[in-house]
Amino acid sequence: MRTSAAPELVDKTTGGIVVLGGDHVVIRRRRQDWQQIVRIGRSACDQCSYCTELCPRYLLGHPIEPHRAMRSLEFNLVGEANVVGTSYCCECNLCSLYSCPEDLDPKNVCTQNKRRLAAEKSTWDDPPFNPDRPDVHLNNRRAPMIKLMQKLGLTGFVNVGPLDGKLLAADRVGIKLKQHVGAPCEPTVAVGDTVKLGQPIGTPPTHDGKPALGAPVHASIDGRIASIEDGVIWIER
Ligand code: SF4
Ligand code: SF4
Question: Secondary structure of 27-61 in the HEC alphabet?
């Protein structure tokens, strides 16, 4: 979800776009800063553990327990201990936007910790995995879609369809060099080059002679390479 005024680009991972007002609950949650998250979380978390009991990664058997990450706030331990298993957080946001009855933000506490662990190159040898948990809980703890939409204030957004398949004629497009997990592509074109629709304009890099995980990117219009900056190739007709 984007809240900035900077131009945003549609890429291959964009599933849909919902435009929300600045006072919408989802936007207000998004705009909370880290200090607010810590202050409120530290004082209001009652350790009910709903965030853990409904966490999809926990339910699959992984050793992530977001309520423990919240508990660590009280001891200023965020980022200090791998025992909370935050590296296993997939950042689905279910705990923050659905599970927590106090509207706290365990997802951001987990991801803050996860990023710090990654920056420190901390790894967890032989992490515990509970293979029995999926059988016991996975199927009866799924969040119902309608409840999720109600909690997020999204039930008023009705898809009236049908899809209009009309193509929009663009005079200028930006193609992101990183559109998915894996390595960002490296440009195979230069500013001023002429390109054709469908032409490859970036490919994944190679490391030690082997191609990195990734997929090439292509021009979506005929045009000229206007600039290559901030990970985006801009093409103009
Ligand atoms: S669900 Fe909310 S209140 Fe309960 S443990 Fe998790 S963060 Fe704390
Ligand atoms: S955001 Fe992370 S901790 Fe929260 S429910 Fe999703 S996977 Fe679990």
Answer: HHHHCCCHHHHHHHHHHHCCCCCHHHHCCHHHHCC
